[in-house]
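Listing S7. Sequence submitted for prediction.
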Amino acid sequence: MKFISIKEAMKKGSGKVAIRGWVYRERGSNKFKFIVLRDVSDIIQCVIKKEKFGEDKFKEADKIQIECSTEIIGTIKPDKRAPTGFEIDVDEFTVVGWSDNFPISKHQSPEFLLDKKHLSLRMRRLSAIAKVKSTVLKAFREFYYKEGFYEAPMPILQPIQCEGGSTLFGVKYYDKQMYLAQSWQLYAEAMIFSLEKIFCIAPTFRAEKSKTSRHLSEFWMAEMEAAWYKLPELLNSAERCVEYIVKKVLDDNLEELKFLGAKIDKLKKVKVPFPRMTYTEVLEFLEKKEGKKIPWGKDLRTIEEDLLGKYFDKPVIITHYPKEIMAFYKPKDPDNPKVALCVDMIAPGGYGEIIGGSQRDLSVKDMTEMLKSMGEKPEDYDWYFDLRKYGSVPHSGYGLGVERVVAWICNSDNIKDVVAFPRTMLRFKP
């Protein structure tokens, strides 16, 4: 027989089926062996009866443990007592790969599960999150392809910093020093003079000495850059993309979201327009609502972002942060040079910043002064400054933190659950 998925078998509902997967649960008696089999699509209960197989074959069935890989042929029928409403009366079974005392169980510590991540990935919760993550990546690509963008990968090994030298990972490159990419941005700015509108999904590296539940040293960033876009066009693009991603997950992964306990009703409210506030308005809002007075010029911390997020069901767009605390490439607002033409998008529910972006500075003089103040060598950026000398145009871009978006959508407590093999300040294996 041709093997089909468990979900396809349940859709068939009756008759002979052939399925295969891994043992999710098992229990038995001297007459029956009950196996709950899982594959990527679902789980289903299967019953092996001693009277049908005889003594020797039933002894083989009795040895089946959790995570044995197994092929089963039998008759499926509805059964309200079974975990997913169907049961298979087994006619034939084959153990493809034996398993002995699988170490992952319900009541183990998060740290143990991370130590055994190569095995704990099989947990249904992590599988559901991985499916959502796949949809998020697909949706970002779909959105920008539909908008007429081109996908344009850029180098991971880079000679200069983009987001601050203190968070660089150094790499020996033959006899020279290079760095793992903090962003594709500087190279993307070169490419927009060729393709105009581009995007990329790539790994990003930040050597941040942070041990929070929302920080990773290696994560995936979905980024876009577009010629002719100023800040208003950038904001519109970012919020429409996030709306598209959430809708796509709701359409494609509703079962996974229910299984994960995601806040589906709130996700359905994620529609444009999103609330928009300037940095200054955020300070005024938090002082009024929370009695929290934050000195102007101080960057918003996790605690302030979380306080703001609890007042909204949708992500909040924050613009015009103080120029002095922004990256060198974020330009002054011509109407108020104390602030930059930039944006952060804060997810509700305590998930923090999911997008950071800006219009790009066109003034070589201003960027040179900023780099000097940071202790950088402006001459290392000569190639980047060339972009401003030969037909420069206004342009903008942003980066979306994929794992943070997935954690928010899935209502996950820890960002380490939404990446297959997390890399943090303290965790670098398996």
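Caption to Listing S7: primary sequence and predicted structure tokens for the chain studied. The chain has two domains: 6-97, 114-418. The first helix runs from residue 6 to 12.
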